[in-house]
Design brief:
This protein is 66% helix and 3% strand. It is built from 9 helices and 2 strands. It has helices at 2-39, 99-120, 123-137, 145-176, 182-200, 203-212, 228-267, 275-289, 292-302, and strands at residues 88-91, 94-97. It has a two-stranded antiparallel ribbon with strand order 1-2. It starts with a helix and ends with a helix. 13% of the residues are buried.
């Protein structure tokens, strides 16, 4: 009997503990159930989780801050209240580019700019000629590479500034104003660059690349008959040829100084003394007395006119 009473007391204690533990979850479920019951009385909820009353199509509650406007021309389009999003708004070729898209295009242009600078401008010729000048002087790293590249960049800007201004005025600004399409802007912007490259390209280089492309060459071909993919490599080859010719002409007077110095040292029996060690001061002296930088840079710039 005593064992049965003890067991009954133990079971009763466990029952009380179980009811106490389960009372919390039951209360939570009851509150959830009451909330669900209250929600049934609220407006209907659509498939996207928004109430029918608060959908964007409802005229009483809008998702935009101001009333949407209308425009009659491209100048008024930028003043409209549109959603804060990365979009490009166009209407029959007229429109404006959103700020984030404009930033992305600028970053893309910056990434491609070094290649365009080397291939489509006067940068290559200037850089190679200045490099040959330093090699002829035998001054090793004077002027340093940073100075040579900086001079080449600013001389390129000086030479190409009228062309860049023409591209900006005739292609970029009209395209941003919505006056021309993208294809027209690209074609108009390439025209000044093509004219510049055509004037600096030798006929034999253009003829070689035209024949390689499978097009028949005629003596009366002009700029409009040469495709851009043919004109660019022909221009680059012509620039390399012209730069090396100018570099060879610069080398001649310094080579003469080396030969005279080597002959004098051999006549004096000083064969173990490197001739370049003695000739370098005379090269620098000759270059300074002749105002060499002015002669090289000014005549180099004049080759593009």
């Amino acid at each position: 009997m005593r064992m049965n009473k003890c067991r009954m007391r133990i079971w009763a204690a466990w029952l009380i503990i179980g009811l106490f533990v389960l009372s919390g979850p039951v209360a939570v479920l009851a509150s959830i159930g009451s909330g669900t019951t209250n929600q049934t009385t609220s407006p209907a909820v659509g498939s996207n989780g928004l109430s029918e009353r608060r959908r964007a199509g409802d005229e009483s509650v809008r998702t935009n801050r101001y009333e949407p406007g209308q425009t009659e021309n491209s100048d008024q389009l930028g003043e409209l209240n549109i959603a804060n999003d990365v979009i490009i708004t166009y209407n029959n070729g007229n429109g404006t580019i959103a700020g984030p898209i404009r930033i992305m295009l600028i970053l893309t242009a910056i990434a491609v700019a070094p290649t365009l600078l080397i291939c489509l401008t006067s940068f290559t010729r200037i850089l190679i000629v200045l490099h040959f000048t330093r090699q002829a002087l035998n001054t090793q790293s004077a002027p340093p590479n940073q100075v040579i590249i900086g001079i080449s960049l600013f001389l390129t800007y000086f030479i190409m500034a009228p062309i860049f201004t023409q591209i900006n005025e005739e292609a970029i600004k009209p395209f941003e104003a919505g006056q021309i399409t993208q294809e027209e802007a690209i074609e108009t912007g390439l025209a000044p660059l093509r004219q510049f490259m055509y004037e600096q390209t030798q006929k034999k280089d253009a003829r070689m690349f035209i024949e390689i492309s499978g097009t028949e060459w005629t003596d009366d071909m002009d700029l409009d008959d040469i495709p851009t993919p043919v004109l660019i490599p022909a221009f680059m080859v012509s620039e390399l040829r012209t730069a090396f010719i100018i570099g060879f002409v610069i080398y001649i007077p310094f080579l003469v100084i080396d030969m005279v110095t080597a002959s004098a040292l051999m006549a004096m029996g000083m064969m173990m003394l490197p001739p370049t060690t003695i000739s370098m001061p005379f090269k620098i002296l000759l270059f300074v007395l002749a105002d060499g930088w002015n002669l090289v840079i000014v005549n180099l710039v004049k080759t593009f006119y």
